[in-house]
């Protein structure tokens, strides 16, 4: 018997994940107080093999009780029960967007702003994130993609590697994505912003892509970047890394970074990697 503890940021998709895991045959419990974990494990143990896969959501909704989760997990391990932690995360802007769309309140924003509540939650979850066996960044994932990620992670024998690569384009003027593992600055590449016929378009447009890539420096950089990423992927997999976030930034996040991320997405997908793409700042401004 093995327990999967699902935790992470509010708004990162825990409610959806617990539904998907129930479909995969897990016995699922949502929002269990950590103090009940040991007793619950003993009850599961008495099922004589009927409960082999158990998933439990425990998060900040537990209030003061949640602060004892780490010590309760240590006690669970001391008693000989095996568990792993799935930590769900998303970028701050994505979380803010989701809360505004659903018009729900963040558990820690009752007496502070939404942004302050999210930051406070990150601080409270820092130790759990470091303990996690799997960290899943749901930024830019639709529900079907999230479901597929869960299936890849928890169905043995499925084709595909556990490493998921998240590609993010961004503008340095709006800040570097906090979730980034690797950050590349492409502000030295030719800029379509100064071409009046291309300024209003983005790196999704073939004309912008040709402008950016039809230069020796652009192609040389891209070839070296792709070669390095292909070198890193198997080494990250060997290390046991589950999620790799690669962020590419230009000035405004509309032209050069979008172009490079689109090319990388195509190449890495053709290599049969699990890749998601998110153009964070493509719709902002005109730079």
From TrEMBL:
Ligand binding (GTP): 59-62
Chain positions recorded as ATP binding sites: 8-15
Alphabetical UniProt keywords: ATP-binding, Coiled coil, GTP-binding, Nucleotide-binding
Domain RapZ C-terminal: 164-281
SUPFAM superfamilies: P-loop containing nucleoside triphosphate hydrolases
A GO molecular-function descriptor: ATP binding
Chain coiled-coil ranges: 111-138
Record-linked InterPro entries: P-loop_NTPase, RapZ-like, RapZ-like_N, RapZ_C
Signal peptide coordinates: none
Domain of life: Bacteria
RapZ-like N-terminal domain sequence ranges: 1-153
Pfam families xrefs: PapZ_C, RapZ-like_N
Annotated protein name in UniProt: RNase adapter RapZ
Species assigned in the record: Isachenkonia alkalipeptolytica
Lineage: Bacteria, Bacillati, Bacillota, Clostridia, Eubacteriales
Gene field: rapZ
């Amino acid at each position: 018997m093995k327990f999967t503890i699902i935790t992470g940021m509010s708004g990162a998709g825990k409610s959806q994940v617990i539904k998907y895991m129930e479909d995969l045959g897990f016995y699922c419990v949502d929002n269990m107080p950590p103090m009940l974990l040991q007793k619950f494990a003993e009850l599961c143990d008495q099922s004589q093999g009927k409960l082999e896969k158990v998933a439990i959501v425990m998060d900040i909704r537990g209030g003061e009780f949640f602060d004892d989760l780490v010590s309760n997990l240590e006690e669970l391990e001391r008693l000989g029960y095996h568990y792993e932690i799935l930590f769900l995360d998303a970028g701050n802007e994505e979380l803010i967007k989701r809360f505004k769309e659903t018009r729900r309140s963040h558990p820690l924003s009752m007496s502070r702003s939404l942004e302050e509540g999210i930051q406070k939650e990150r601080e409270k979850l820092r130790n759990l994130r470091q303990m996690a066996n799997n960290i899943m960044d749901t930024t830019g994932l639709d529900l079907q993609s999230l479901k597929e990620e869960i299936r890849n992670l928890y169905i043995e024998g499925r084709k595909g590697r556990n490493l998921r690569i998240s590609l993010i384009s961004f503008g340095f003027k709006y800040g570097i994505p906090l979730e980034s593992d690797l950050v590349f600055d492409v502000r030295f590449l030719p800029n379509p912003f100064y071409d009046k016929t291309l300024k209003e378009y983005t790196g999704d447009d073939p004309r912008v892509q040709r402008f950016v890539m039809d230069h020796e420096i652009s192609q040389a950089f891209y070839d070296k970047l792709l070669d390095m990423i292909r070198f890193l992927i198997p080494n990250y997999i060997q290390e046991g890394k589950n999620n790799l976030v690669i962020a590419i930034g230009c000035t405004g996040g509309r032209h050069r970074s979008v172009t490079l991320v689109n090319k990388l997405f195509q190449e890495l997908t053709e290599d049969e990697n699990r890749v998601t793409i998110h153009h964070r700042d493509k719709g902002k401004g005109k730079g």
